[in-house]
Amino acid sequence: MTDRPAPARPPATAGSAARRPWHVGTYLGVSIGTYAVLLAGVTGTQSDADAALIEARRPGAEAAAELRAAHDRLELEVSRIAARYSDAGRAYERVAERVAGLDGVLGDLRVTVAEVDGSAASLPTRVSLPAVRRTVAAPVAAVPAVHATTGASGG
Amino acid sequence: MTVAASLTVHRFEARALGSPLRLIVHEVDRGSSARLWDEVLAEFAAVDASLSRFRDDSEITRLNRSAGGDQAMTASRRLSRALIAADRARRMTGGRFNPAVLADLDRLGYVGAAVGRAARRANASERPIARCADGIRLTDAIDLGGIGKGLALRWAAARIERGCPDAAFLLEAGGDLVARGRAPEGGPWLVGIEDPAGGSGPVAVARIDSGAVATSSVRITRWRSDGRDVHHLIDPATREPADGGLLAVTVAHRDPAWAEVWSKALFVAGCAGVAPLARERGLAAWWVPTDGTTEMTPAARQITTWVAAET
Question: How far is Cα B9 from Cα B189, in angstroms, rounded to an integer?
Fold first, then answer.
């Protein structure tokens, strides 16, 4: 047998090397695109679901906020009423003290009235007054004592 | 009636410028008060020698003898100050106070030292005192009697204050007076205003803390001339005794000379003019018209402590 030389392999050229990864890039782009479309779809679906959920919960949230505000107002009003009640209590205590003081004064007055009443009962029913003058001279202010007198010169 | 104090009060009395001179002083010892009295006597003696028209040898008499002439005369510091004050008083009172009335007083019989040719009667609006480079020249003979006494009180009070700044005193000269500090009892000095009709008591009593009081009155210095009653308060406008229906005018002022000037000017203003002029000038003034009533300005009312007519 005669060895035949092996056919020479054609030399690799630059154009064949550049064509080789083309389909890889195509596959990769298609995959990424497909994934992006799927992701957008899923995201859109999720967003719609969240919006629906938020919309469904909105009346409840508003009612809760309104209830919280009403509660705050009620708490403030109760505080005010409590302060006024406290003031009224103190005023009442002061009035009560004064009433107690007046009560004591009235007690003393009652005793005094009783004494005057007793003294009046012992007074004579008629008193003879001394005769008085019918005309009274008005008091005359005396000349103040002076240190010097100003007047005509040459005296 | 006079206040009798239990405090150490020193009283002195003499005569000067033809009138009684009295000093009440306290807050000082006996020796100091005697020295102050000597100062007062010295000042009044100096004023008498310089300003008295009754002395033949006084400076003012020598000056009056030159009145109307062309020759200027030199004057001492005391006389110069008196002439300046008199000229200023003439201007401030609108001529109601004018010292150039000596000829009129002589004519009416209130005669002082003879001044010879000074009988010329200058125009009332003419300036009687002229200062020039070589001295003083008078156009008419002048009388510094009233303002001279006020100036003597002013200068004597100043000498007391210089000699003893803490002294409280009342110095009285012929019805005019000046007071400083508090009275011996601790309050203001109480000054009675004489009844010009001759009553025994005052017509009013005024409180004086520190100031002066002067009175122009016809109660004493009056006489008869040519069959008529005349007095020494000459109206420069008429050259006759002022006849405005007033018996006396009293003025309280910070300064005794100005108190004297204004009391005379108000007297000359008469019943019709005394109140407007006194109020316009803000003076504390009392006056007694010929009907014997006592009237006063609001400023006088504020320091009046007693009025006879209201008791």
Answer: 13
